[in-house]
C-alpha cells in the first residue's frame, strides 16, 4: 500500500512540474547567427 501511495505522489509531482514548466513557456533568447559545423575538418 505504501508503494502505491508513493507512486501516486511521485506521478502527481511529475505532472505538476510539467504543467508548471508549460505554463512558464519557453525562455526568450536568440539562436547563434554562426552555422554549426556538420563535418569534420580534413586533416593536414
Write up what this structure looks like.
By secondary structure, the chain is mainly alpha-helical. The chain is built from one helix and no strands. It is elongated, with a radius of gyration of 22 Å.
Quick description:
This is SPW_0924 family protein. By secondary structure, the protein is mostly helical.
Task: Give the end-to-end Cα distance, rounded to a whole number of Å.
Answer: 66 Å
Largest sheet: none
Mean pLDDT: 85
Number of strands: 0
SS class: mainly alpha
Shape by Cα distribution: elongated
Note the run of SSEs as H and E: H
| Overall radius of gyration | 22 Å
List the total number of helices.
Answer: 1
Q: Mind sketching the topology for me?
A:
Elements: H1 2-24
Amino acid at each position: 500500500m505504501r508503494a502505491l501511495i508513493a507512486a501516486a505522489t511521485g506521478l502527481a509531482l511529475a505532472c505538476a512540474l510539467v504543467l508548471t514548466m508549460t505554463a512558464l513557456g519557453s525562455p526568450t533568447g536568440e539562436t547563434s547567427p554562426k552555422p554549426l559545423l556538420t563535418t569534420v575538418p580534413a586533416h593536414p
